Amino acid sequence: QVQLVESGGGLVQAGGSLRLSCAASGRTDSISSMGWFRQAPGKEREFVAGMHWSGGTTHYADSVKGRFTISRDNAKNTVYLQMNSLKPEDTAVYYCAVGSMGWGRRTDDYAYWGQGTQVTVSS
């Protein structure tokens, strides 16, 4: 089992920045992939960013490419999502997720999920 605890959400004006953190504990040696997803009211959960736990190429949804950056600190078992140039349409609950298979863009590609953190961007 892996437990994930997220932090860093909040209210920010359009054009501002936030950094989300996701601390993993438990069987972290089983983690091979990580991702960030988001879910806005009335919409399905969607992929935002992902990468292999060991590093390497990062992957982003087209809607956030160039504005968001996913990274990790293996020593701290922590995943980050740096969000810049935020827009009102970025408003959603953001979830981190980890899995033991290769990274993917589907929710089914991840076995463990955080509780979610609210990000609200005002215009």
Task: Describe what this molecule looks like in 3D.
The protein is an all-beta fold and about 120 residues long. The chain is built from no helices and 11 strands. The chain has strands at about 1-5, 10-15, 20-25, 35-40, 45-50, 60, 70-75, 80-85, 90-100, 110-115, 115-120. The strands form 2 sheets. Strands 2, 4, 5, 6, 9, 10 and 11 form a 7-stranded mixed sheet that branches. A 4-stranded antiparallel sheet has the order 1-3-8-7, with no helix packed on it. The radius of gyration is 13 Å and the shape is globular.
Keywords:
123 residues, mainly beta, four-stranded antiparallel β-sheet
Element layout with pairings:
Blueprint: E1 2-7, E2 10-13, E3 18-26, E4 33-39, E5 46-52, E6 58-60, E7 68-73, E8 78-83, E9 92-99, E10 112-113, E11 117-122
Parallel strand pairs: 2-11
Antiparallel strand pairs: 1-3, 3-8, 4-5, 4-9, 5-6, 7-8, 9-10, 9-11
Q: Would you summarize the structure shown here?
A:
The protein is built from no helices and 11 strands. By secondary structure, the protein is mainly β.
Order of helices and strands: EEEEEEEEEEE
C-alpha-based Rg, rounded: 13 Å
Measured between the Cα atoms of the first and last residue, the distance is: 40 Å
- Helix and strand content put the structural class at mainly beta
Helix content bin: under 10%
Number of strands: 11
SS field, number of helical segments: 0
Low-confidence stretches: none
Report the biggest beta sheet as strand number plus sense, adding barrel if it closes: 7 strands, mixed
Overall spatial form = globular
User: What is the beta-strand fraction?
Assistant: over 45%
Mean pLDDT: 94
